[in-house]
Amino acid sequence: MATRRKSSSTAGKPEEILSEDRKASPDDPPLASPKLGLILSASALFFAPFFYLLFYHYQIEPELRRSIAISAAMSFGGFVVAVRMIPVAARYVLRRNMFGYDINKKGTPQGAIKVPESLGIVIGIVYLVIAILFQHFNFTSDSSWLVEYNAALASICFMILLGFVDDVLDIPWRIKLVLPSFAALPLLMAYAGHTTIIIPKPLVQYVGVAVLDLGWIYKLYMGMLAVFCTNSINIHAGLNGLEAGQTVVISAAILIHNIMQIGASADPEYKQAHAFSIYLVLPLLTTSLALLSYNWYPSSVFVGDTYTYFAGMAMAVVGILGHFSETLLLFFLPQVLNFLYSCPQLFKIIPCPRHRLPRFDPQTGLLTGTKDGTLVNLFLRLFGRCSEKSLCIRLLIFQALSCLLCFGLRHFLAGWYK
Fold this sequence. Notes:
Shape: globular
Family: Belongs to the glycosyltransferase 4 family.
Main location: endoplasmic reticulum
Number of helices: 17
Region (Disordered): 1-29
Pathway: Protein modification; protein glycosylation
InterPro entries: Glycosyl_transferase_4, GPT
């Protein structure tokens, strides 16, 4: 989390002065090296089960396995490019005075360092390039999935643009809440999938049908899901590594869920829907890992609203087109709890400060929870004071446990619930 310093006005300045303003200050320290050791360890936890399920556990068609392997290879290339491009982009945003100070380190030497903001723009651009180029290897010009695939990319691109506009202009919260609904329009207009839901078996006797067609209400639900996912990532934030970290954990859960559904199904269309989801979530996971290597404590870059909006929209699109929106909401359990806990402040029922962050003690380096309605503060009040790094790890473990709970519920309720 950062306190922002907006770009100073340069109107009316001579060109040579403008040029001097755009130069990074020689006093600014160089960007710290990415924490690749941490990222490689985390990647092993996520990718080992995925590749085991893909190549050994399930009998998956060679053509589908080939497409997933190509997507994985291109996504790894995106990771490498993102790691190299983030320091370059950081220098440019610093020249434009797009930086912040880390509030959770205020009163320490680290709290006085200018941290470049809005580096999510790099991740969004790399992601889009990978996803667009992947079409060459997987889709033909008459593919029935091509329209929805490009509509999904259009929605994600629109959200990246709106997120970057928010980073630059600092849009009020009441406007932020509706931005994703505009970004979701390309996807909603192009969506040609089913608009039906399967009624849980215990409720069929009360509803009267096993499958209910919701029509336009289903599309309204998809739009609301996009709004929730984007904003929920944005408000469950405030610690180094939390925004990118939660995206990595959820993306890994989505990836494993998709490969399990492909392996367990014999329906070609059902398999293609989940493969479609894999093609979109693999580059999200790898590029987010690249960002996390710079954003992990102590953070050398801030992700900005550009990244939180992009990540939320990408996961919403993946859940909608993969037809597992219920499972997606279970993966988002901490974000759901954080949103519900935040509602009194978000809707101005009780006062809401600009930064709902814990109090930092520069003498001990520990955070203390405040009465603000966030999961970050709640964890501090429940489990006591701790360092920012320890708090982020606890929240990410909670995120991972929520995803495991989702897998457990699907396993034990299969055949009874639906």
